[in-house]
Amino acid sequence: MQTYRLAKTGPEVSAIGLGCMGMSGMYGPSDREEGIATIHAALDAGVNLLDTGDFYGMGHNEMLIGAALKGRKRENVVISVKTGALRDPRGTWLGYDCRPAALKNFVAYSLQRLGVDYIDIYRPARLDPNVPIEETVGAIADMIKGGYVRHVGLSEVGADTIRRAAAVHPIVDLQIEYSLISRGIEDAILPTCRELGISITAYGVLSRGLISGHWQKGQASGKGDFRGYSPRFQEANIDQNLALVEELRKIAEAKRVSVAQIAIAWVAAQGKDIIPLVGARRRDRLTEALGSRAVELSADDMDTIARAVPKDAAAGARYPDAQLQHMDSEK
User: Fold this and answer.
1) pTM of the model
2) What InterPro entries does UniProt report for this protein, alphabetically (predicted)?
């Protein structure tokens, strides 16, 4: 597995990271044993970047990762944790709390659930509108001095916030959605990160399965699957979006690879400073995703993909309007 350094001062991470959110019910029921087996398979294949959030399953995801890492060498794993999101016992989203005191409280619980002495990359999941980003980053910097965290990351923030954060402490990466059908970062956010030497860890590279080649119209989202609320999966938009997938399928078949492998390879081809996070929660999906590393996209391939899936071709926004209104990256 090829590795790249995040920013100039960050950790060396594998060319593909494993996003673990789906192992804790965000896409409907999940299988604990299969989740642990998938993490083990990823680590055995050379994937060292595991991404989670302390609010995924209200701590379930961190405990799952902690169980998977027992008996493994801590220094061989890079753990990225998002924090600050608030949920009630029913799973309802209640907002964000990124005050310094709150973050120091949250990190203490994360360390216990993960069963580790430090977290490699710690980041606010979203910008807290009531707390200046300087205070949030300053609190994480304090935890770095204390040895509880190694690096500062950001998530779903805009160019101005990135600059303000980087003025307080070096930022190793911005975690943000980026895929063939979610390319908003190309306008201002990606250029800003490249100017400042900040890497991108891209989630949603398969748009929550929509452009994986496996999603079918009428496929039930199931209880607890937030895709049921996603505009791109709604009846008014799904036909147009799946038509784009069929165009990708033609390209994939010509290269004798899968649609998912084409989509992941496209993100990886955008630069060595961009690390795709794949949300595989089963070993077979992980194997497919890792196969994207062998997919070589020529200039002609990239042009063909651009014609098949033009920028802004997707129908529907990437999140419901209520969520987009609170996302700094969308301003």
Assistant:
1) 0.94
2) Aldo-Keto_reductase, NAD(P)_OxRdtase_dom_sf, NADP_OxRdtase_dom
